[in-house]
Amino acid sequence: MTSANKATGSTAPVLPVTEKRQSVTGTRKLVAAGFLLPALVLLGALVVYPIGFSVYRSFFDKSGDGFAGLDNYIEIFTDDTILTAVKNNAIWVIVAPTVATALGLIFAVLTERVRWGTAFKLIVFMPMAISMLAAGIIFRLVYEQDPNRGVANAVWVGVHDTFNESAGFPKAHPLPVHPLKAGDGGSFLTKEPVSAHAEVQLPLVGVAPAKMPSDAQPAKAAKPEDGRVTGTAWLDFTRGGGGKPNVVDAKELGLKGIKVEAVKDGKVVASTTAGADGTFSLPQAADGAQLKLPGSNFREPYNGVDWLGPSLVTPAVIGSYLWMWAGFAMVLIAAGLASVPRELMEAARVDGASEWQVFRRITVPLLAPVLAVVMVTLMINVLKIFDLVLIIPPGSSQDDANVLALQLYRSSFGTDADLGVGSAIAVLLLLLVIPVMLFNVRRMRRETRR
User: Fold this and answer.
1) Is 312 found in the same domain as 430?
2) Which of these, 374, 373, 371, lies nearest to 359 by C-alpha position?
3) What are the start-end ranges of the H helices in 171-281?
4) Which of 185, 272, 329, 346 maximizes the CB count within 10 A of its CB?
5) Final residue of a structural domain among 297, 322, 340
6) What's the pLDDT score for residue 326?
7) DSSP label at 353?
8) What's the rounded Cα separation, in Å, for the pair 149 and 333?
9) pLDDT of residue 270
């Protein structure tokens, strides 16, 4: 008997006291499983099952009845359209995250010390509030070929025309009754040699009113000058009708700025430009020469770059992506930059380091974990890029801008749908994402161990 039994005189056995075992979190396993079950069901229904079925379906043919083996995967790397999508995805993964992270780093560092840095960051981050669909529509207009509608070409043409002489009168030409004939390189020459003391007529038609110089004046006949060849170059067309060919009428305008050359034996001996009223004067050397209106007067105006053409469509779409996501990278990097010890930077400056050395040897190494987060996030994001590639490229160049996510949509739900190929593309995208995710998980584990 135990001492308690002896004290009470009782002979009943006393059972040992046992405690109920609990889980580490202090809750019963059954209760924890009850809370996790809804999440596990949703995870299985929305993630695990679709992945498993996609892998299974990728081994069957278009109808889903016949086993195709690896034929669908072989088609991915043999079909030209899908190969283009794979190559473009490689370009996206390499270029877009790198450039977006670099821009975010530059913006974060440069705006750190300026008073209006917060306002600048807000402006750069604002595109994140716009959906991909809306951004695609915006940039479809930005990249419009017509400089009068597309912002990109309007700026490009403005810069080009600042440093290069633009054509004055595109599509201008003489009529058969005019004293001019076609020359080489789109030029026009007088049918007969000219002489001093005689007025030379250089009439043209085909100039749209919008293309006429705004300061052009009514044309008038040139006054003869001793020892010089004079003449008039004008638009031989009267708005509203009337007027006579080869005659300077009152309502007809001079071709201001048109270049006139005197040519003898194939060589230019003199040249000039017409005034606001179309009159011009050449020296004695022009006597007996043919007058030539060079083709540079009539070439088509520079209309900019074909941003959405086959060669530039992918960089153009990547540019729209950078417009949206550079702000995201900037905000994350700026948050990491705020936690960088300022004492290290100041000590480096005291030791004589330049700002570039401080940036390269201190700021960037300390921000490496943040830069890795941004890079990995953007890499996963661009692997599934879809909206911009669907909206921005026109139909003529959409195949050149194709990516795997868009090809997945086309192969699965297009006019000639092949769910076997579509499932194989989905599996390929999953396999491409897995290494990036594993890298991110390993990086996070290393961070937690520090």
Assistant:
1) yes
2) 371
3) none
4) 329
5) 297
6) 94
7) -
8) 36
9) 92
**DSSP percent split of the chain into helix, strand, coil, nearest 5:** 50, 10, 40
Are residues 146 and 193 part of one domain? no
Do 199 and 86 lie in one domain? The reply is no
CA atoms of 287 and 273, how far apart (whole Å): 17
Q: How many CB atoms lie within 10 A of CB 161?
A: 14
Q: Whole domain around residue 379: which residue ranges?
A: 71-152+307-449
Helices (H), 339-418: 342-350, 355-358, 364-366, 368-383, 387-391, 404-413
Residue 269 has phi, psi (to 5 degrees) of -100, -20
Residue type, 170: P
Residue-wise pLDDT tens digits, 295-348: 888 877 778 889 999 999 999 999 999 999 999 999 999 999 888 888 888 888
Beta-carbon count within 10 A of 245 CB: 14
pLDDT band at 392 (very low <50, low <70, confident <90, very high): very high
Task: Please tell me the number of Cα atoms within 13 Å of 272 on its side-chain side.
Answer: 20
For residue 38 the two structure tokens come to 């809804």
Strand 290-293: give its sheet, edge to edge. 180-182, 188-190, 290-293, 259-264, 267-273
pTM of the predicted structure, to 2 decimals: 0.73
Per-position DSSP letters for 150-168, written without gaps between them: -HHHHHHHHHHHHHSPPPS
- Which ranges of 111-215 does DSSP label H, i.e. alpha helix? 117-125, 132-142, 151-163
